[in-house]
Design brief:
heterodimer, A: 252 residues, alpha+beta, eight-stranded antiparallel sheet, two-stranded antiparallel sheet, 6 helices, B: 168 residues, Sufe protein. Chain: A, four-stranded antiparallel sheet, 33% helix
Chain lengths: 252, 168
């Protein structure tokens, strides 16, 4: 059964297939997300991140969670050659690009620690699945058509990995084809990434999307990452290993 | 044994010299070629250098394109064209494109970033060929959906730019 709540202004979907009396763990998961939102929301003036941005908090007093997220953000910035950066042009910190995937991944650990092996956990398109669905089959994920949100254009079976899609349009300097100078570069409008877990998928989806066309090659060269990018002309390009996620192990 | 050693030294030296002259010629050819800053499709033939002071042995470089373009039999006029230096955010990119028989037959990178961390990690390995497909609506039932909520906005922005350019 699906449990959906709106937290952080985004739909949070949790489905636990195994175990009885799951209400306690369900409440714990949703409360965890609420606490994360209270700490990391840049829209809440009293959140820890807002206090830090106001300059009223010394770094030595940062919470463990804040210190960890800032450390992971810096690590990601280095791993992506600066394409991932939580520093805004205005000199503020906005870790929202890393908090969502990180929080889902932590919640998935809470579920596993609670003895659950078969579940689905999603916040606004970033998904961690585990085990089998209610029909005893592998979880299946559709990639949303960026031009028609009622449609899906690809079916993926994450095989226990994490899935995230990035689509924020980031303006940059474009390489123009000297032969077709009037042609708009085929920037991606949607980039779906499969990674070792939802945290990894989310942060590299954000970074690879900012890299534009090079993003797919960036993913291609990472171990255990695949990407499916859709451009403005409705053409999808995928990394060479994506194919193995288009087939279910349970359906023959 | 000594003879083998001497001859291998000689061979190595010859190879190094050939490589050196080849490199300097290529570099001279690049700097002397015309850069079309306006991205126009007017053919700009790459001319070979008349002489090169840095090259000590005569290395013949054939003109890549005739000074008078051949009659076009395809969409484009035969010749070699150099693109503008484009800022790819992590470095500059400049390509040269060769049109033969009215078709694009070769694209070479005259400039490609290789000095910064990201560029190195991207360029270190040969670029594999990635498969593409036209997206199609799927009727399959799925457990969940992954998608960027605001990508349609980006599409509209992109399309607006495309239409504006198409009018120009």
């Amino acid at each position: 059964m699906h449990h959906t709540r709106s937290i952080m202004g985004m739909p949070v979907i949790l489905e636990i297939v195994d175990g009885t009396d799951t209400q306690v763990i369900i409440d714990r998961i949703f409360n965890y997300f609420i606490s994360i939102d209270d700490r990391f929301s840049t829209y809440k003036s009293e959140s820890e991140i807002s206090e830090i941005n106001k300059g009223v908090v010394a770094s030595v007093t940062y919470s463990d969670e804040m210190s960890e997220v800032l450390r992971l953000a810096e690590q990601t910035r280095e791993e992506t050659g600066g394409y991932f950066d939580i520093h805004t042009p205005g000199g503020q910190l906005d870790p929202s690009g890393i908090v969502k995937g990180w929080a889902i991944n932590n919640a998935a650990k809470l579920l596993r620690d609670g003895g659950h092996a078969h579940f689905y956990l999603e916040i606004a398109g970033d998904i961690q699945t585990s085990g089998r669905n209610g029909e005893g089959e592998e979880w299946s994920i559709g990639i949303r058509n960026p031009f028609n949100h009622a449609e899906i254009v690809k079916v993926l079976y994450p095989h226990e990995k994490g899935v995230a899609t990035s689509g924020n349009y980031i303006r940059g300097n474009h390489v123009y084809n000297p032969l077709f100078p009037t042609q708009v570069p085929n920037d991606f409008v949607s980039l779906t990434v499969i990674g070792p877990n939802v945290y990894e998928a989310d942060r590299f989806a954000t970074a690879a999307f900012a890299m534009e066309k090079e993003g797919l090659y960036f993913l291609e060269h990472q171990d255990d990452f695949e990407g499916y990018a859709i451009d403005a002309n409705g053409i999808a390009t995928m990394t060479t290993g994506l194919e193995k996620y288009t087939k279910s192990y349970t359906k023959v | 044994m000594k003879k083998t050693f001497i001859s291998s030294i000689f061979l190595f030296g010859f190879g190094a010299y050939f490589f050196y002259t080849h490199l300097t010629t290529a570099a001279t050819a690049n700097t002397s070629s015309t850069i079309t800053q306006n991205n126009s499709i007017t053919p700009t033939p790459i001319t070979s250098p008349e002489s090169s002071s840095t090259t000590r042995s005569p290395v013949v470089v054939k003109p890549v394109a005739p000074s008078v373009p051949k009659k076009s039999i395809g969409q484009y006029v035969d010749g070699s064209y150099i693109g503008s230096v484009a800022d790819a955010y992590y470095g500059n990119i400049q390509v040269s494109a060769v049109i033969s028989g009215g078709k694009l037959t070769d694209v070479t990178f005259l400039q490609y970033p290789n000095d910064r961390g990201t560029s190195i990690s991207i360029n270190r390995q040969a670029m594999p060929i990635l498969r593409s497909e036209a997206i199609q609506a799927q009727s399959a039932h799925v457990n969940g959906v992954s998608g960027a909520s605001d990508s349609s906005t980006a599409f509209e922005e992109s399309l607006a730019v495309a239409l504006a350019r198409a009018k120009a």
